[in-house]
Amino acid sequence: AQSVTQLGSHVSVSEGALVLLRCNYSSSVPPYLFWYVQYPNQGLQLLLKYTSAATLVKGINGFEAEFKKSETSFHLTKPSAHMSDAAEYFCAVSGGSARQLTFGSGTQLTVLP
Amino acid sequence: DVKVTQSSRYLVKRTGEKVFLECVQDMDHENMFWYRQDPGLGLRLIYFSYDVKMKEKGDIPEGYSVSREKKERFSLILESASTNQTSMYLCASSSTLSLAGGRYEQFFGPGTRLTVL
Known about the structure:
The complex is a heterodimer of chains A (113) and B (117). With 113 residues, chain A is mainly β. Chain A contains no helices and eleven strands.
């Protein structure tokens, strides 16, 4: 069974500041990990994914995430926040034969001018 | 590009009505999913399907049913809509194959915001 914990349901940063959104997972098999972004009244869009090829994963819009097996973490970062980054972000895990994704509860990112 | 479309972006129905939400994907994906999303509760899985005419209950199937007669189409049915089914409904699809990595990466439609009065 898999589970995902996103620490902080709301995160606020100033424009130009570092964005750090935390995700910890639990999985009994080697996981596949995903970050999705959701803008208001839209569906989820894939930001990036970890598929065991490289521990540091680069995604769209300048985001990246690092897979740390020892910490069971997959935190999302961006060096400099833009106003357009304001959205809700979801971490998700799948693994083994499970075709489903297990989603975290989401983190709402606010970017302050 | 994978495209998942949903029949309506916004829908308003009355209590007791039968409601159909349609989802179509164009990438020949085997797996399709219906979620509902409510503030503070994240995404909750209602039903999913791994093949035509196959369905399995998710975490919150009560009050819903589904139909998958063709591979590309997955319908969510509210037999008798109630006000507590007012929500955002999201459809997603995925492939079992891991050709490009990210096995079971899900692709989402734009969502249907359903209001039941």
